[in-house]
């Protein structure tokens, strides 16, 4: 026959099982999320530069150039985006302009072979090495400001003012626009091949294209032919072996990833194990009840053993002030002066006569401490007696 205790134990076990399952499921979900975040972070850290980088004509982010590509198409320019050198060379003809950012993934020979078929080449950014290879100039060490064209190239006549982030010093025979020969934002070399260099990293980006004359400058540089072949450099199209930058995965030892996964698995196992122990709080009766009087006597013996009369007097005064404030109808944290004045009014004695008693200098010895305790007790007794007298009179 099933007893009441057995039924109660079975019911308690049945109530705890759903909570335990819920705790395990919650910790398992947290572990899965941690593993997913770690995997995503490792993939992001180990990946190389993305295909949608700075001034990418198909990128919608702030550093991309999709807005510029759409404006060129609206002006009747056919924009063809290519991501390989072979496709760029195949797309070039007499009516096409070749545009690209700094081709940092290509060797000098590959750059020469890429731009050779084009009659008009525009570099939307350039490194110091590329400037030297082109023989078009060098980086100028001058802080840029707001500049206008101030050159004889007709397509720049209606551009207006721009605020470039980088300027160049023109080489001999190279036309400097938007500045002077010592510091210009645009360099144009049309002796053997019409080549233009401008740092459009910010000027032509989606975020800044609408500022100043940035859009007009972009149209003047890239919209002079019916077709624009926009080559996007990438490590997938490089001809230089071993030039890919080291990723986080390349720089870390081989044992790091397994160690991280092992630590995550161990943490998940500990979370599941500890999660089984969670449950509602259980009130338990303390095995020992300590009376307030015993605590008071214990503290008194400790104070007496230490011989600290000043500390004992402070405790006596604090207790007396709290009790008097309650009996006199004052706030629990009333100031000593308020308590002393209220007690003086209740006892009909001069004001200021109780301040020293309730908050005066500490006693110097045990005899003074005993005297202080007696006076405080007499004060409390007198206040109690006056309160009883007032109630009886009323």
Portion of residues within helices: 40-55%
Overall body shape: elongated
Number of strands: 9
- Computed structural class: alpha/beta
CA-CA gap between termini: 70 Å
Count the DSSP helices.
13
What topology, given as strand order, has the largest sheet?
1-9-2-3-8-7-6
Whole-angstrom Rg: 44 Å
Q: Per DSSP, what share of the residues sits in E-state strands of 2 or more residues?
A: 5-15%
Output the helix-strand order.
HHEHEHEHEEEEEHEHHHHHHH
For the report, how would you describe the main beta sheet?
A: 7 strands, mixed
Mean pLDDT: 81
Low-confidence blocks of residues: 44-51
Task: Describe the protein in words.
By secondary structure, the protein is an alpha/beta fold. The strands form two sheets. It has a seven-stranded mixed beta sheet. The two termini are 70 Å apart. It is built from 13 helices and nine strands. Strand 6 and strand 7 (184-189) form a beta hairpin. Helix content is 47%, strand content 10%. Residues 44-51 have low confidence and may be disordered. Helix 1 packs antiparallel against helix 8 and helix 10 (309-327) runs parallel beside helix 13. The longest helix is centred in the N-terminal third of the chain and has 43 residues, at 4-46.
Topology:
Elements: H1 4-46, H2 66-74, E1 78-82, H3 85-91, E2 96-100, H4 108-115, E3 120-123, H5 128-134, E4 137-139, E5 168-170, E6 175-179, E7 184-189, E8 194-198, H6 214-222, E9 227-231, H7 248-251, H8 256-275, H9 292-306, H10 309-327, H11 336-347, H12 355-359, H13 366-393
Parallel strand pairs: 1-9, 2-3, 2-9, 3-8
Antiparallel strand pairs: 4-5, 6-7, 7-8
Helix pairs in contact: 1-8, 10-13
